[in-house]
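Look over both lines:
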Amino acid sequence: MATSRQGPMVSEGKAAESPVPIERLRRILEAYAPHDGVFDLAIKGAHAIRRSRVSEELSHIVQDSSLCLVAQGAKRVMLGRETFEYDSSKMIVFSVDVPVASQLLRASLAQPFLCLKIDLDLKRVGELALKVFPDGLPRSDDSSAICVAPMDGKIVEAGLRLMESLAEPADTELIAPLVLDEMIIRLLRSTIGPALASISVKDAGTYGIARAVSWLQKNYSKPMQVDNLAEIAHMSMTSFHQHFKAVTSMSPLQYQKTLRLQEARRLMLSKMLDAGDACQLVGYASASQFSREYSRFFGAAPTKDVLRLRDRLRISGEQQGAN
């Protein structure tokens, strides 16, 4: 992961104040993400993302709780059987960590995909939700972990002020946390707000699911008992199953299996492990079962799939070097 702690200075004079907020966000993201990659900004939890190529195949990752504001390009994410698309006209929120498949739909060298990603601290979201909704949380008809809504100009303007604060270290330290709170407050007051509040406020409808998801994230390689997860969520078994699937679009077992397979693939690619070692590390007792489930999930046997991905990464690196 590329890192830019301070980042370049961006001059914004009077002539630069005329573009609409999303265009200004595009320009400042280009400055802080000078080439393809994910750049950690000097503001904790803020990242600038740039990609210059559309996806030829799906990318499988665990998407953490976050708000994403796209300034240019378009992307698709799939959670279970649900599909979500977003671009500069739509903002997307991931309320809990979920294993997703993603694909870039619009990106090029001339017009790269540019995105500001803000990590969401659910504890802080819950604290602010109680202030936004002092008379009680509004009812949410959507409990999915992923919500897409029309881009909110005020949230974009706050995102701009957040990034512009990087030019002054004192602003980064003192002003940026306030702007982050503003972005969360405006998000809670948007159409996404009720669903986000429900997952982040203790004793709210889906709050317990976030606790269960957190346990699975930390313990995906361990044996899982659904009744123990229901106890962690403080729900009955029936209620837990219903709420877990409503939020994640999959059962607890499917969620754990997806985490295991994604991590095994990552280990084989990044750590050069063979399939046997990787399957044991992620919790599989049977190599044959691992191979079957891996093939169904990724479309090819582990060794064949990883060799193909390594070859594709090598070719992509050579092409980028040539450019």
Summary: The longest helix spans residues 302-322. Confidence is low (pLDDT under 50) at residues 1-18.
